[in-house]
Amino acid sequence: MLDRKRKGMARHLRLEYKGAIYHITSRGNERSDIFRDDRDKERFLEKLAEIVEEQHVLLYAYVIMSNHYHLLVETPRGNLSRFMQQLNTSYTMYYNVKHDRVGHVFSGRYKAKVVNGDEYLLALTRYIHLNPVKVGSMSGKGVEDKVKSLRNYRWSSYPGYAGIGKLEKWVDYGPLSELAGNYAGKRWESYRFFVESGLAEDDEELKEVMSRSSKAIGGKVFCREVEKEYRQAVEEKRAGTDAAMRRVEVGADADGLLKRVCAEFNLDMESLSRRRNVSDGRLVAARLLKDQTSLTSREVGQRLGLADGSGLGNLLAVASRRLAESRHLRRTVDKLSRIR
């Protein structure tokens, strides 16, 4: 991984690999509010749900505050950067249009710490879910007030875990619910007890664990290994290349992928390069070429008869809307993605 500089600012490196679990924090620029009203929060969650599915990311927990958000995610495909770029960019575009503004919404790059396995996941979700009652005016309230406020807070995955709200289809409750089942009682009751027991006092052990490393959350050995890998990546001087991307799987064969799309949608190869063609088959081809191959945006555009990257961006925007509307089309994309 390389420490690249752009306009004099050092860019932090990312450790990315398949199956990595991350605690992600993203804050507003200059700590300003990035969610001004409920509609902003609803729109962010709509985009999060869409992109989690599109990028095949597993979302285990989340909370939205007025000027930042927390996510706990797993990346089976080693695509953290792509997932986060799409999420923050799409929300920035919405936010700037709605509030008639320009410029950055988020403060620099998000923070993403690699998380050690089961031992720390439950405690970390408690930290995430308690955010609404641990900061601001609620921090000085009594335990009963905090419990009431926590259970009524709409903008987190806690209600689903605690059995006091609906389950959201795009949150993966299974693994952490099983861990919570180690406590006595039903799983949601066990998890609710586990989280709310943290209201009376701070989790000093978790605080110590979270302060061990700027790159990882876990035991001392795990943190040392992550830091070592990070240092080794920095030492690999390969100009212009993010070492995180060297760990991602080799891209699919573009020709084979297009043949499968044509067979699935009963198309010929020539039709995929017709510029005015916005059929489902061409939209799926654009999405898969961008996500599954190692082609650049320009090269993907050329395969589809487009003159430049902006044309591909427009086509991908249409593809995203169609995928959001059609469960059948999403399943088709998923099926074609698995075939190599």
Structure description:
It is built from 15 helices and 7 strands. Helix 1 runs antiparallel to helix 2, helix 11 (254-265) packs antiparallel against helix 12 (280-292) and helix 12 (280-292) crosses helix 15. It has helices at 38-54, 80-98, 118-129, 131-134, 143-152, 158-162, 174-180, 187-196, 204-210, 220-235, 254-265, 280-292, 297-303, 309-325, 327-338; strands at 5-6, 9-10, 20-27, 58-64, 68-75, 111-115, 216-217. A 5-stranded mixed sheet has the order 4-5-3-6-7, sandwiched between helices. Strands 1-2 form a two-stranded antiparallel ribbon. The protein is an alpha+beta fold.
Quick overview of this protein structure:
This protein is α+β, with helices and mostly antiparallel strands.
Strand order of the largest sheet: 4-5-3-6-7
Low-confidence stretches: 1-11, 237-250
Rg over CA atoms: 22 Å
Judged by helices, strands and strand pairing, the structural class is alpha+beta
Distance between the termini: 28 Å
CATH architecture of the largest domain: 2-Layer Sandwich
Number of helices: 15
Query: How much helical structure, as a percent, in the residues?
Result: 40-55%
Count of folded domains: 2
Text of the CATH class of the largest domain:
Alpha Beta
